[in-house]
Design brief:
single chain, 508 residues, alpha+beta, Arc Repressor Mutant, subunit A, extended
């Protein structure tokens, strides 16, 4: 049989992601801080874009619309036809889920993607009204705290005057970990400095007397020993206890007392003193600049219900300088005029589209956040126990958008509520069947487990089987392995570990 070449024509539909649509999709995931940085970058490339940080006019009628500056002509107010058409296309793409094209994850399990561990975020604000003045947060972000290395180097310059020893001290400082411990072996540091290990040991003894207490320690025992020596509590019993921290961790108080040649009360005294020490003295210092993320959405209680609004104190505004664009267009002549006019047309068109994308982002964010608040209004009133099962699909159907769009909006934004500040995604929770046949949110069940553990008798921790039985008595079907999984998510130790900690607490 002879093979013959053939030509076949097929039609295939594919979604093409334009650069502008990709940019709009990225805007959905950006926080207010990210948008501010992004707009400043765009302003460097586009001379007709001006950025106003924070909303100077919170009464602006349009979501995300920038307050019109005094030098902006009225002619710039109505959008161009191309801008309007682009806006309509953007609205359609957001609703139809065009964002799926660049999402490498499967969207079949979107409703189960989010956990609710973030509900512990902002616990200090629980029970207090949402604070609408975020200037304090901005001031906190601007504080330039001294790092651990800077603190140590400043003390070295004041205490060590020998040039050779100072070089070794600098090398030891470079080996510090964020915890305050020494992160490299002493022989490596000595070799790098070209000195003996004995000389390095001498300098180490000097820098271990610096603040904070316990800095430059090589292990936990040495860190605690330094602090005990500085506090003048390093007696014979304390020295033995620090040499056998493993026995102390296991709660073998009696055996430790026999080894130290003392009684249990003396060991308990050492334990109380150790608890007053800091095992990681460097944690009080910032190893990296702290990035404060102010909430993007603010929820407050109004007369007729909950009020959801964007945090306009951190939301940037985009202003297009139409007057400058007109001046540039009128200044050129001949071929130069054609080139400048084309540049102005492209730059202004890009700026208008970006402004429309920001408006769409803000509108989409408000719509989704408002629906989440509507669905979880009981949580805002009664707390975590009233959290309802909620999936991305539920919100997507309610607002008429695709699950992908909801997923992107809720991926990184924070919402300030009277119950605290939470990530939007933390308000989603999978459902767990109850005895009556209805469902409960997994986060609410985890909160139930936490309440049971918090109320257990001291020194008599409940097993996972016992917790599962108590939860079942409250109407929720729960297996022992599920209790263990939720307990791990809540960072609650096992019953044996809780028993050991209780024994140490009673000993101290």
């Amino acid at each position: 049989m002879q093979m013959m070449p053939s030509l076949q024509v097929k039609q295939k539909q594919a979604l093409v992601m334009t650069p502008q649509l990709q940019q709009a999709i990225k805007l959905l995931q950006m926080t207010n801080l990210d948008i501010t940085n992004f707009l400043h970058e765009q302003a460097l490339e586009n001379p007709f874009i001006e950025v106003e940080n924070g909303a100077e006019d919170t009464r602006a009628s349009d979501l995300g619309a920038a307050p019109r500056s005094k030098d902006t002509p009225e002619a710039a107010a109505p959008p161009a036809a191309s801008e309007s058409l682009a806006g309509e296309g953007l609205d359609r793409d957001m609703k139809d889920g065009a964002a799926l094209a660049d999402d490498p994850t499967s969207h079949a399990d979107l409703e189960n993607r989010f956990g609710s561990e973030g509900l512990d975020y902002g616990h200090a604000q629980r029970g207090k009204p949402a604070d609408l003045d975020w200037d304090g947060i901005a001031n906190l972000a601007e504080q330039d705290a001294e790092s651990l290395v800077e603190c140590v180097l400043r003390q070295i310059d004041l205490t060590i005057f020998d040039p050779r020893q100072r070089v070794i001290a600098y090398a030891l400082s470079e080996a510090l970990e964020p915890s305050g411990w020494l992160g490299r072996p002493l022989d490596e540091i000595a070799s790098a400095c070209g000195v003996s290990e004995e000389e390095t040991e001498e300098v180490l003894a000097i820098v271990q007397k610096l603040e904070p207490e316990g800095v430059f320690a090589r292990d936990l025992a040495e860190c605690l020993r330094i602090q005990a020596r500085e506090r003048d509590v390093l007696d014979a019993a304390m020295s033995v206890v620090l040499d056998h921290l493993d026995m102390l961790a296991n709660g073998d108080i009696a055996a430790l007392a026999r080894r130290a040649g003392t009684d249990a009360d003396d060991v308990a005294r050492c334990l109380r003193l150790i608890r007053e020490m800091n095992p990681k003295p460097g944690e009080a210092y910032e190893s990296a600049p702290l990035r404060v993320h102010a909430p993007d959405v603010i929820v407050s209680r109004g007369k007729d219900g909950w009020i959801v609004d964007l945090n306009r104190s951190t939301l940037p505004s985009l202003v297009i300088n139409e007057e400058y664009a007109a001046q540039i267009s009128a200044s050129g002549r001949g071929k130069a005029a054609e080139a400048s006019n084309q540049f102005v047309t492209d730059a202004v068109g890009s700026a208008r589209w970006l402004r429309r994308a920001l408006e769409q982002r803000n509108s989409t964010t408000l719509k989704i956040a408002g629906e989440i608040v509507s669905q979880q209004s009981a949580f805002l009133t009664e707390g975590l126990s009233a959290l309802k099962p909620l999936a991305l699909k539920d919100i997507a159907e309610a607002v008429g958008m695709h699950e992908s769009t909801v997923s992107r909006v809720t991926s990184g934004l924070l919402m300030a509520t009277p119950k605290g500040c939470f990530p939007l995604k933390s308000l989603f929770s999978v459902s767990i069947a109850t005895v009556e046949g209805d469902t409960r949110a997994a986060a609410a069940v985890r909160n139930m487990i936490k309440a049971i553990v918090d109320g257990e008798p001291v020194g008599k921790p409940l097993s996972d089987d016992a917790i599962a039985l108590m939860v079942s008595e409250k109407g929720v079907k729960l297996a022992r392995r599920t209790v263990a999984k939720y307990r791990d998510m809540l960072k609650i130790p096992s019953s044996s570990e809780r028993r050991r900690r209780a024994r140490l607490a009673m000993a101290g």
